Amino acid sequence: MQTLKPKPKSRPFCLSVKGHVKLLRLVFGLAASVFSIADGALIYRKLLFNPSGPYQKTDAHDKLVL
Fold first, then answer.
1. How far apart are the C-alpha atoms of 66 and 55, rounded to whole Å?
2. Rounded to 5°, angle at Cα 20 from 16 and 21
3. Rounded to the nearest 5°, which phi and psi values hold at 55?
4. Prediction pTM value
5. What are the DSSP calls for the chain, one per residue?
6. In the prediction, which pLDDT does 13 show?
7. Do residues 51 and 57 touch, judged by C-beta distance below 8 A?
8. Phi-psi region for residue 52, left (φ > 0), alpha (ψ -120 to 50) or beta?
9. Which residues, in sequence order, are CB contacts of 19 under 8 Å at separation 6+?
10. What pLDDT was estimated at residue 21?
11. Residue 31 contacts residue 25 (beta carbons within 8 Å)
C-alpha cells in the first residue's frame, strides 16, 4: 500500500508573481476600457454639437438661389 505524500505548502495565489501579473492585467484592461468609452463619447459629442466640413447641416432658406 502506498502512503500519500503531503502536498507541499504553497503561497496564496494573490501573493504569487502570477497573481500580481493577472491583477495588473485586469486593472489595465478595465482602465483601457473606461478610457476608450470616454474617448468615444467625447468624439461623438464633439461631432454632434460642432460639425465641420461638407456634412454640416444647413437650412433650406440659407441656400442661394440663382
1. 22
2. 115
3. -95, 15
4. 0.56
5. -PPPPPPPP---GGGSHHHHHHHHHHHHHHHHHHHHHHHHHHHHHHHHHS--STT----GGGS---
6. 72
7. yes
8. beta
9. 12, 13
10. 92
11. no
* Nine-digit cell string for 26: 485586469
For residue 16 the three cell numbers come to 504569487
Please report where in the chains the cell 463619447 appears, as a residue: 41
Which residue type occupies 17? V
**What are 20-62's pLDDT values in tens digits?**
899 999 999 999 999 999 999 999 998 888 766 555 566 666 6
Better-predicted residue by pLDDT, 29 or 7: 29
The pLDDT of residue 56 is 57
* 45 within 8 A of 37, measured Cβ to Cβ: no
